[in-house]
Amino acid sequence: MAKKTASETTTTAAAAAAPTTVASSETKLRMPAEEKYKDELAYLASVDQDVRPFAWRLSPRMIRTFILGAGPQDKFDRTIAQKFFGDPGLVERAIVTLASDRGLLLIGDPGTGKSWLAELLAAAISGNSTHVVQGTAGTSEDHIKYSWNVAMVIAAGQSRESMISSPIMTAMINGEMGRFEELTRCSSDVQDALISLLSEKYITIPELKGEDNVVYARPGFNMIATANSRDRGVNDLSTALKRRFNFVTIPIVTNKKSEKEIVLFRTRELMARHTIAMDLPPTMLDILLQTFADLRETMANASSEEQRLESALSTAEQIGVIEDALLHSNYFGDRVLKGDTLARSLVGSLVRRVPEDVSILNKFWHAGAGAGEEGGARKRKKGEEKTEPAAAATSSRGPEWEAFIAGGKQALSSFK
Ligand SMILES: Nc1ncnc2c1ncn2[C@@H]1O[C@H](COP(=O)(O)OP(=O)(O)OP(=O)(O)O)[C@@H](O)[C@H]1O
Ligand SMILES: [Mg+2]
User: Fold this and answer.
1) Rounded to the nearest 5 degrees, what angle is found at the Cα of 380, between the Cα atoms of 377 and 385?
2) In terms of CB atoms within 10 Å, which of 89, 163, 342, 382 comes out highest?
């Protein structure tokens, strides 16, 4: 094995430039963005000279900086970590929408960072990203509006005190961002309840009389909803509701450099959270990125749905694979991430349907997975069946690739 120096060939994830704002917490497994980046947000507010719409904590320009990051050239006294990787125009459009009368609907494939962007926006704008309603088939109007504390109603009747505000209503009362996750998963009458809420910006409470009858939204309230484009339903939203949202579509990140940064960013956070001091060898990251790129190309060229993996092969899935592999190496391995462990995690994450996904992956693996752009994927595009063993196709790529290929084959054979 070639000798390598830590600085040349490895990124010591825990020790390397882990974002200084990542605070470890003993009491919360996962901190909301406003807590995690508390220092950054306070700093940006202190230097913010621009006009802030409504009661926003930051101006649109500073919100963009918070989300997209700032380096030395931006003349801030500190670096601001980039948290969302994507088209700056898309982020700007999202921010502008939230200052308008319309709500924001983030649409995209699973794992493209919709919820993450929604959380960052709510944290930067309102300092609170936790007014969240999760859309499911069982979501009712009560989840959007309000319900009652039955014991209090029995004891003292219906009043504002015995009313339980939904997260959206709380956001309205506070003049903050309300979030609605997976909007298209709930029934159309629940979706339609949002129409009046988004246009009138108040909720009536017919059970109460006088002034208590209506809850008005304070300035600063708006809604950030997300919808998965793989779930059927974005087109099924009623025209009236569509008109009350600006749609922002988030594409899958296919740029390898950005993808690498996202995966590294999340991996560092993960390792800091688990206090894992392990190396993340760049070769392993390259193998992962290349394999995903090849798989995506293969899936794009597949002639039918049956020949495609169920997985969207998103960046989030790459993060999941590397997280799994690192934890496995840390707890069961010798604390060095190896090719076979990575392959096993990858197969484990991508096989959801047995035997369909196993057979698709087997074909991919045996046709030269990891042979890179010049190898597997491109040959397959021309319809050539590659029969040579994958290891032969990749032997020039080094022992890590070989271990990866062998590990993948072994993991796939365990499904037989
Ligand atoms: N463009 C991106 N920039 C930064 N992080 C990203 C990006 N895309 C994905 N991620 C990371 O992927 C993880 C999953 O993203 P998230 O949960 O927001 O996806 P989603 O689009 O809401 O998926 P789903 O439709 O399944 O709910 C997050 O931890 C996020 O950090
Ligand atoms: Mg989501």
Assistant:
1) 135
2) 342
Cβ of 227 closer than 6 Å to ligand 1, yes or no, is: no
Residues in CB range of 224: below 8 A, 6 or more apart: 98, 103, 104, 106, 118, 121, 122, 177, 178, 179, 180
Residue with CA nearest ligand 1 atom 26: 110
How far is the C-alpha of 270 from the C-alpha of 39, rounded, in Å? 20
367 Cα: distance to centroid of ligand 2 (angstroms): 34
How much distance in Å is there from the Cα of 150 to the middle of ligand 2?
32
Question: How far, in Å, from the CA of 58 to the mean position of ligand 2?
Answer: 24
33 lines ligand 1 (CB under 6 A): no
What is the per-residue pLDDT across 133-170, written as a single tens digit (0 to 9) for each?
Answer: 999 989 999 999 999 999 999 999 999 999 999 999 99
Q: Of ligand 1's atoms, which has the minimum distance to the CA of residue 109?
A: 25
> Can you give the pTM of this predicted structure?
0.86
Mention every residue, 6+ apart, whose C-beta is less than 8 A from residue 340: 403, 404, 406, 407, 410
Per residue in 256-296, pLDDT (tens digit) is 889 999 999 889 888 888 888 888 899 999 999 999 999 99
What is the pLDDT of the chain when averaged over all its residues? 86
